[in-house]
Amino acid sequence: VQLQASGGGLVQPGGSLTFSCVASGSIFSINAMGWYCQVPGKQRELVAVITFGVGKTYADLVKGRFTISRDNAKNTVYLQMNSLKPEDTAVYYCNARTTGDGAYWGQGTLVTVSS
Length: 115
What we know:
By secondary structure, the chain is mostly beta strands. The protein is built from no helices and eleven strands.
């Protein structure tokens, strides 16, 4: 499984950004896709995930502000981030989980929320 993520950048507090992540390769084996974030000195943390056929899960800090969605036809998952805060500043990674507990990561994308 290969993941190609796009989006990110510099945004002012209160602004919005949208990430997209396109999966290719053995996509039939994917059972969940989502986004994680990481800041220096901390572990990578879950932001949001879609578990296929089950539902969506969000970190408490982003509930009501971020929305994860999926376009099956495009093998793409999106993360709409609204009302961004400086504490959302991090490197964001797309993740795919596969049957057999496989895990795949896209390249990190930096989000900086600053005025």
